[in-house]
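hey so i finally got around to running the thing on that chain from the lab meeting. sorry it took forever, my laptop kept dying and i had to restart like 3 times. anyway pasting the input first so we r on the same page abt which one it is
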Amino acid sequence: MIIHGRSVKGGLRMKNRIDKRYIESFTYELGNQSGLRKLIKKVIKKMVLWFIKPIGDRQNELNRQMFDQIEHMCLEQAKEIQNLKNMIMRHNMDMGEAMNQTNYRLMSVSSNVKNDIDVMNDRDLNEEIALLKDHGNDNLEQIKTIFETGIERAIQRQDTQDVIVILCNGLKSNAGIEAVRKEAYNLYRIMKRLSKYQIKLVSIENESKIECNGNIIYASEDALEKYFSSLKIRLLIVLESDVSILYRAKCLFFKYKSLVRITGQNPLFGIEPIYYEHLRHLNDMGFQRYDVFSMHAQSIMQDMGFKHVAVKYPLLDISLLNYKKRDIEDKVRIGFASAPMEKEHWTDRGMDLLSEVMTNYPEFEFEVLWRTDKVAVPATWNAMKHLKILKGKQDMKAFYDRIHILLIPYTSVDNNHACSFSALEAMLQGIPVVATNAAGIRDKIIKFGNGEVCKISSKSVGDAVRKIRDHYFEYSSREKALLLRKELSDLNVIAEIDNYAESYLPVNITTIGEWKKALESAGRELVKGPEEIKAYYSQFEVAENYNEDRFMQYPENCIDLLERTSIGNIIKDKFKGTELNILDIAPGDGRIVQEDIKYGNCTGVDASEAMLKVLRKRFENNSNLKTKIADYFENDIEGKFDVITTFRYIRHFEYFQRKILYKKILNNLSEHGILIFDVPNIKFEMPVRNQNGWDKYNIYDIFTTKEEMIAELEENGFKVEYVIAIGNNLMDNIPKECVNEPITWTFGAVKA
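ok and heres what got predicted. didnt touch it at all, straight out
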């Protein structure tokens, strides 16, 4: 008897001697259906037990009956399988027909809709579906979902002309560099499918003309300004290894609300100090946010004074990266897929270390993807028999199928990706990664255990490879790959991008450079930084006229009253009449002190002796006030306070300086104390200042949204308990967009 189907390895041939005769040989060629295979093997196992016992004719008859039953079961299973195949084919045909009908209906509507549908049905979407269809029938539902999502988003885009532009550098000229294309194109393709905004991918090229390939635009720096002016840009997503791309095109990109996704391990590599101030200002005002690809890169940005720096990872189409159970049958094959574009980057990218490893460990096999013709392969490599070099564009799936371990041998944070595409792709497919401690991917390796992090030495790399080899199934488990897959979901990233695009965007973004130029044209200078602000308010004339210049006329006198009233209400609500110990930082002439002393003893701390002189004179007969001359930045103030008030002070400093103030304030707050201070509303200040002219504002101020300030305080150890709007509808002759906006908020925040 022969059970027909597709053959598999391990066909079973049984011979048993019974009464010095051979029973008929049975060969089973089992199909690829694991359930059927297990069933037959189970039955055959039972048959063997029958054959090894002395049996008579009656028993042989039972055996024949059993084989008849097996044959019948197999035939029934085969029929079921064929029915399933037929159903899948019908489903595929039905789906194709439905897609054709949908296309026909959508393309028959108005011309405006047709244009967007054409965008949706361009080669990008078709390419995505084509990639999925190659993976078999299991992806039919996913193809359908992708197509339907594309239709829904295309229809939604009819309601807006707002565009999200993804900007990168050298996409066309670096066409052979797969990592460059993947990082830019994956983001573009996924956003195009999932974002409600129109998406364009713009690449800065050396050519002087603008070349359009659908929604992919190649343009020179000179042509970008004109092209950008033709778009209603809601958000600019900048994608590059470091921030230097922002200086291109005469700093044109400073003028747009931006999400800067920096892929390099050192995101500020090579930045000129003159630009730090510009970038921090844009970041502080909420016009720029930063995504980086490792915790190391995040710490570099934060140490340099940037806020809201989020650790994200490259957007991968994880649907195309399926886990595969692997084994090491013979020699360990180590793959490397990050060849340098420039020879001067060799050391940083680990070429020297890789050469040393290959020389010292001939028992391993190596496979290197060398993706550039611009740089020759190291001469010593040509003689290595255990090394296979593949040049140009390669089939990455085939590459991953051949290797057991992927190596990331970086020796520096400079000139390197923070999170290598190849490493993520490998781990998602069950391939362990060995990375040096200079590689940003170490974060994921440590978190999920799908590889080893080693020191920057040949011995350390070799030890790591051997350790993985000896415990391969532990490092390459399906569970580890699935945990990583869950973390790399693109849906959350796209939702965050859309939410940022929808957040407040001023009509015109004014950079700090433009602010300074406006003041210079009026013969004035911007007063900025702790030392300059201290020097400014130490002038006797400024101190003496402080209140008269700022709070004597409408609407400023009204704002003053509302702010002091808000302070009183917060204190009364929180402390219920308790006698308090209060600190007022930078009290000026005592505008806020006059409210504070109603609720207890108040200490006024100011770096300006001129200001303190005015304050003492104003409250010379009030025993509830003490004064202390001290720079709160530089000097530690003794004691714990129930309430700390500070108005027109925190707003004068950059974020990295505010972080210092927050830390010191937390130290001075009692366990149940509260910080009360003012926060200028960017939705009011930006339009009003644009209208009035920036030459009228000579003291550096930061203004923000309520949500941004809440996030900032939470990042720095506070919990917001009170937010009171100040100044709604107080001013006339202001831009329409800010008529109903508060001028400031009074924030009340306690220790988190």
